[in-house]
Amino acid sequence: MTEAPLILCVEDEQQLLTDVTDELTEAGYRVLAARDGAEAVRRITDVTPDLVLCDISMPVADGYVLLDHVKAHPQRFAHVPFIFFTALGASEEIVRAKRLGADDYLVKPVDYDLLLATIEARLRQVGLIRHSAAKAALPTNAVLDLLARPVCLVGRTGELLFRNRAAIGVIGPGSNQPYSAAHMRQLLDRHAQAAVFTAAPATGLHMVICRLGAHDAEAVVFLGAEEAADVLSEERTHRLAEAFGFTSTESRIAALLCAGLSPSEISQKLSIASTTTAFHLKNLFQKTGTGRQAALVAKLLSHPTALIQD
């Protein structure tokens, strides 16, 4: 069963916060409440809301603080609509909010019918965008089913969108606690800044989790007994180098990126200057047609030459 959308509601007026929370709860939404922008930033450290409702003028930290934080982390919040509450006639604030990236605004006193209609429309719009992106960007089930390696696709709320035949043989077709939506979402939030990381649930089966960026599926999960460093064996790295035209140094850096190392860690491991690593990383971006580390790792790990068994 899919969980109800989670709404982050930020408002310093306690009675209004209570009223809005009650309305949203009665409408079937889950609600995360905060009294100012700073508290809201803390509340979303380990959880990603589906939509944000936020007052603009608040003590301690105003709504712009939260908006800046959200816009600074597009990997997590790119598909999270941000709606401001504003006072009647505050046109300057509305213009500023729009320019900073707010998606919509509601004027106080709050019209609750308009509030619910706006939320429903924004969430429906996000759903359509994700569905379109998924159809355009994700591999077909038939292709993934041909792979010998167990592979799963994880959605933005942590649910398993798809598991290929090999994965079904390992973890089964139904719900499985170590791979539940709540557990997968917790793992993704815990490693919010990581392009790729390894986790070992109670089953003892390693999961190499690679983020996919702005697609409907947030991550692709490779299941197996191997550690992250073994995802790209020497043979698979060689095949990728041939496919993309990597130099030997670029191949080594690509393999280390896919093992979860940061550019600074790669510089230390290879005993090269950080500027040299940055130069080779720029070449990797150009040769793969990517612009971010997460997108680069995703493209390498999901490339047919990397998925073929040695």
UniProtKB/TrEMBL annotation:
<keyword id="KW-0238">DNA-binding</keyword>
<dbReference type="InterPro" id="IPR001789">
    <property type="entry name" value="Sig_transdc_resp-reg_receiver"/>
</dbReference>
<dbReference type="Pfam" id="PF00072">
    <property type="entry name" value="Response_reg"/>
</dbReference>
<keyword id="KW-0597">Phosphoprotein</keyword>
<dbReference type="Pfam" id="PF00196">
    <property type="entry name" value="GerE"/>
</dbReference>
<protein>
    <submittedName>
        <fullName>Response regulator</fullName>
    </submittedName>
</protein>
<dbReference type="InterPro" id="IPR036388">
    <property type="entry name" value="WH-like_DNA-bd_sf"/>
</dbReference>
<dbReference type="InterPro" id="IPR000792">
    <property type="entry name" value="Tscrpt_reg_LuxR_C"/>
</dbReference>
<keyword id="KW-0805">Transcription regulation</keyword>
<feature type="domain" description="HTH luxR-type">
    <location>
        <begin position="239"/>
        <end position="304"/>
    </location>
</feature>
<dbReference type="InterPro" id="IPR016032">
    <property type="entry name" value="Sig_transdc_resp-reg_C-effctor"/>
</dbReference>
<dbReference type="InterPro" id="IPR011006">
    <property type="entry name" value="CheY-like_superfamily"/>
</dbReference>
<feature type="modified residue" description="4-aspartylphosphate">
    <location>
        <position position="55"/>
    </location>
</feature>
<feature type="domain" description="Response regulatory">
    <location>
        <begin position="6"/>
        <end position="123"/>
    </location>
</feature>
<keyword id="KW-0804">Transcription</keyword>
<dbReference type="InterPro" id="IPR039420">
    <property type="entry name" value="WalR-like"/>
</dbReference>
<keyword id="KW-0902">Two-component regulatory system</keyword>
